[in-house]
Amino acid sequence: MHDTSKPGEFPYTRGIYPDMYRKRLWTMRQYAGFGTAEESNARYRYLLSQGTTGLSVAFDLPTQIGLDPDHPLAAGETGRVGVSVASLADMRKLFNGIRLDEVSTSMTINSTAAILLAFYVLVGREQGVPVNKLTGTIQNDILKEYIARGTYIYPPRPAMRIITDLLAWAAEYVPEWNTMSISGYHIREAGSTASQEVAFTFANGIAYVEAAIAAGLEVDRFAPRLSFFFNAHSDFLTEIAKFRAARRLWARLMRDRFGAKDPRSTMLRFHTQTAGSTLTAQQPQVNLVRTAIEALSAVLGGTQSLHTNSMDEALGLPTEDSARLALRTQQIIAHETGVTATADPLGGSYYIEDLTDRIEAEAVDYIARIDAMGGTLRAIETGFIQAEIQNAAYTWQREVESGARIIVGVNRFHMEAPEGVPPFRINPEIERSQIAAVQEVRATRNAQVWKQCLDGLEAAARGAENLMPHILAAAEAMATVGEISDRLRAVFGEYQEGS
Description:
Elements: E1 27-32, H1 37-49, E2 54-58, H2 61-64, H3 88-94, E3 105-108, H4 113-126, E4 136-138, H5 143-149, H6 156-173, E5 177-178, E6 180-183, H7 185-189, H8 194-214, H9 219-222, E7 226-232, H10 236-257, H11 263-266, E8 270-274, H12 287-300, E9 305-307, H13 320-336, H14 350-373, H15 376-381, H16 384-402, H17 429-444, H18 447-462, H19 468-476, H20 481-492
Parallel strand pairs: 1-2, 1-9, 2-3, 3-4, 4-5, 6-7, 7-8, 8-9
Helix pairs in contact: 1-3, 4-19, 8-10, 8-14, 10-12, 10-14, 12-13, 18-19, 18-20
């Protein structure tokens, strides 16, 4: 199965560009967000001053699942695992002093992706940035939430409608924006193997492409703006081969299964994050070594964008110092190691080529099994994909517990006294300040316009009209994430696992 294509040639096993990093390095996109929009804004400015070339926004749990800070279920979660963004007012603060035509922004958000993109577009418009010049990525990958992560709101089928509405709207109005980052990262974090990560990610990708085509979109209209998000795990050579296999398989799927004619539709563009699940609370400084090796595998595998985890993330959110060290890891790989001098440096290695073939073949087999079940939605509804991941995770854990798989500092090479890495602390006052802020938004907006916009959104959800213009109007009328989500909940209901 070895192909003899060159970098930049179909099926892109050796990279999607002929020169790869000789002309342009990958985007160094550090993932950050915590507390209030003002605090996260300060961290973004700091990272930009240290050489980050792209921003990546982490949102808190209430924002991810469509709850405002004053919702009872948001208690204790506001600003904890990401930044709290409840309304357009928060998005303005988040990017205060940061020109949106000078930075590429990735937003890790799924169930409420359409709402957060609307906020971002409105901030860009207020800055005077032409909407069609905004660049970045929104994750907008709901299927993996049912499989591996859990921050869903609506049942899968109406959730897919929101996604296809966003794809259609964005293709017309924000053509430079990556409207979906189909994520294998969380599938791998949940315990999948490398082959399963590729297979289940692409099964989700197939479902999105099929849904968009069924909604009347031509494949070459939206496919060039699809991107992917993969995990760089601990098995160095396997990860390099995984990225090569993924590129080749996606190219063939798009050409042969969907008849894509535009070469951009067949090019797998992906962001990579080093594996959070491999970080240990024991001897946290050792995580610097793990992250460096994982990051190097992503670069040797040809990633377009990279986030390096910080050494203290098994203890809490990263401190400013540890975030800077994580960024420096990428800069050393880029500027001191020489690995950017040629595309696909390990291409042609017998073992790498054999691993590439094996991972692709295993992924193809999984996709065929999912097709035979009736597709990805059916495989999720029956629990097949979830069970496969759970079995792989169980096997891994048994190997760790038996000592067959060594984790340094965990089941071998212990230290008596833990090394001191002071964790980052979230100010408990944040929740109170965010509740006050969202209540201020509600008290000062035009209530009549706000209600008209939300009523229009609900009516559109009950019909077949594209939802994005209505979400944009509601966001501009200062409707909150929770209020917009509640109107959609009223129509679509909420997903219950196992239902």
